[in-house]
């Protein structure tokens, strides 16, 4: 059974549904109208562009081109994370990029090569979608966790110094702040996992069923997608914090200026 295609006319009719949220955004003067319209237009343009590019990726199915595309995704994700967290590039760019790269390669290739047992692990059909799913989830969790981690350190520097002064190692003094970052970033994901299939059907499962896969196959894929996204997100965060901490503190354990200072307008 093939997936029913959506004609461009039908797609345009479907997009008219956006008039409902746009109306309420305008009615209550939220100030989000312009951002919503621009965001929607960007989404449409970007997805059409990606659709065209993916057609060529699947046609060529070249491992080097596929891996280059992943590197581009990692670069864009790293820049996006820095922009959303307002962290300095010279301190966090390499740690975030390394965290993304190590996690997505280790977890992604494990899933494709060991779990799915696919000989051509760099096959575009699996390599690109799996790595894309991992990158999207890692980006969201890292942004939340890094914000919580550095905000906590900046807000409670006295506690951090107190722990160091009482004999704690740097890792032990950082542990409470890492704990809070993990709780804040992963609590929503854990809550989502716990109600999976009861309250909501996830996108991967729905997509596979619409694509003709049996529910049993779709369920197993969805289970593994949740596991690998959870694992990759946690691993990338730990790698990022571990590497970033080497540049975030001076020799005495004092937190350096890691946040981008906002310029005051006179």
UniProtKB/TrEMBL annotation:
Signal sequence interval, chain numbering: none
TM regions (residue ranges): 6-25, 32-58, 64-84, 91-114, 126-150, 189-211, 223-244
Record localization: Membrane
Topology versus the membrane: Multi-pass membrane protein
Domain of life: Bacteria
InterPro entries cross-referenced by the UniProt entry: UPF0014_fam
GO CC annotations on file: plasma membrane
The entry's keywords: Membrane, Transmembrane, Transmembrane helix
Family: Belongs to the UPF0014 family.
PANTHER family per record: PROTEIN ALUMINUM SENSITIVE 3, UPF0014 INNER MEMBRANE PROTEIN YBBM-RELATED
Entry protein name: Putative ABC transport system, membrane protein
């Amino acid at each position: 059974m093939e997936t029913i295609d959506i004609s461009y006319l039908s797609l345009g009719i479907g997009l008219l549904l956006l008039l409902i949220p746009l109306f309420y955004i305008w009615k209550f003067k939220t100030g989000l109208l312009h951002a919503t319209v621009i965001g929607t237009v960007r989404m449409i343009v970007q997805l059409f562009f990606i659709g065209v590019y993916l057609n060529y990726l699947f046609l060529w199915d070249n491992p080097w081109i596929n891996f280059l595309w992943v590197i581009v995704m990692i670069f864009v994700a790293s820049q996006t994370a820095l922009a959303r967290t307002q962290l300095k590039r010279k301190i966090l760019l390499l740690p975030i990029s390394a965290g993304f790269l190590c996690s997505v390669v280790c977890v992604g290739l494990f899933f494709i090569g060991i779990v799915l047992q696919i000989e051509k692990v760099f096959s575009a059909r699996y390599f690109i979608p799996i790595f894309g799913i991992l990158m999207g989830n890692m980006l969201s969790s890292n942004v939340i966790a890094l914000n919580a981690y550095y905000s906590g350190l900046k807000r409670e520097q006295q506690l951090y110094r107190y722990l160091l002064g009482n004999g704690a190692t740097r890792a032990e003094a950082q542990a409470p702040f890492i704990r809070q970052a993990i709780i804040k970033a992963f609590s929503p994901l854990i809550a989502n996992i716990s109600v999976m299939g009861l309250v909501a059907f996830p996108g991967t499962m729905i997509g596979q069923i619409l694509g003709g896969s049996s529910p049993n196959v779709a369920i197993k894929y969805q289970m593994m997608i949740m596991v690998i996204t959870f694992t990759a997100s946690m691993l990338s965060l730990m790698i990022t914090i571990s590497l970033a901490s080497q540049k975030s503190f001076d020799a005495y354990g004092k937190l350096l200026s890691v946040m981008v200072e906002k310029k005051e307008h006179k």
